[in-house]
Amino acid sequence: MARPKPLQALSAATLQLLRPLVTILLRNNVSHRTFAELAKLVYVEVANTEFRIAGKKQTTSRIAILTGLTRKEVQRLLAQRPGTEPVSAEEYHRASRVITGWVRDPDFGDGKGHPHPLPMEGKRASFSTLVKRYSGDIPVRAMVDELLRAGAVKQLKDGRICLLSRGYIPQKGPVEKLQILGSDTADLIMTIDYNLHQNPAKPRFQRKVMYDNVPVEAAREFQTLAAAQGQELLEAIDRWLAHRDRDVNPASKGTGRVRVGLGVYHFEEQLDSGRENPSS
């Protein structure tokens, strides 16, 4: 049997990754016309910034050739303001840093992963000091309000703030979670692109484990196992990276500026109607 050509394989992969995305788009009343306009905008942006010829100015005509759009469409799309990362995405990262700092920093716990309840104000072990150390210029009151809304903390009767969750998931509404969809999925696809085209000889770490004939009861156990061990792994990596990140540790030495990280996620799909033994 002949192996599929790269274009055929890419087309099949695109259809597969678009299905869950289109499901989300339809749930949020995004029409094909809106999606097509967004796709055109990204095609033009990527062609303009990443497919330039060295030593030559990028032209509307070349972008039109690369993308298959008309020169008129390219000019219209280039005139639009470029997309920027939403402010709330930065808030997401800062809230996560506050929680992880609370868990691992011995100034705010026992240094072994057990955070202490913190008074709101104080010179050393206070929530105010924690926020200033790990979130920059975000107001302390705004941070505690957001973590309270997210269910990540609670305020005790004596006024101290107690950590309830080692992870931050925005609870304001779907907008913040949809922004995470964009950033996290983009990171995965960039890793795949790097491994396929940019440096296949030295690929970045990209693995997953999956079995497709697991009983429902075992799947429930796996959800608990994956959450516990995944959190343990991420906290260990967080400690290593925080020691080398200049925002957290200004004494960290080295050159350049690189964004690095590791993502872990649990996936599950119901493949039958719940028969006791599908193989029988």
Q: Which CATH architecture of the domain at 87-163 would you pick?
A: Orthogonal Bundle
Which geometry do the CA atoms define? globular
Distance between the termini: 31 Å
Helical fraction: 40-55%
Low-pLDDT residue spans: 84-88
What order do the helices and strands follow?
A: HHHHHHHEEHH
Mean pLDDT figure = 86
- CATH fold category name of the domain at 87-163: Arc Repressor Mutant, subunit A
Rg calc: 23 Å
Tell me what portion of residues adopts beta-strand conformation.
under 5%
Please count the helical segments: 9
**Class inferred from helices and paired strands:** mainly alpha
CATH secondary-structure class of the domain at 87-163: Mainly Alpha
Characterization of this structure:
- The protein has helices spanning 6-27, 32-50, 60-67, 71-78, 87-104, 127-135, 140-149, 174-198, 216-244, and strands spanning 153-155, 161-163.
- With 280 residues, it is mainly α.
- Among the domains are: 16-83, no CATH class; 87-163, Arc Repressor Mutant, subunit A (Orthogonal Bundle).
- Strands 1-2 form a two-stranded antiparallel sheet.
- Helix 2 (32-50) packs across helix 3 (60-67) and helix 3 packs across helix 4.
- The radius of gyration is 23 Å and the shape is globular.
- Residues 84-88 have low confidence and may be disordered.
Summary tags:
53% helix; 9 helices; mainly alpha; 2% strand; two-stranded antiparallel sheet; Arc Repressor Mutant, subunit A; 280 residues
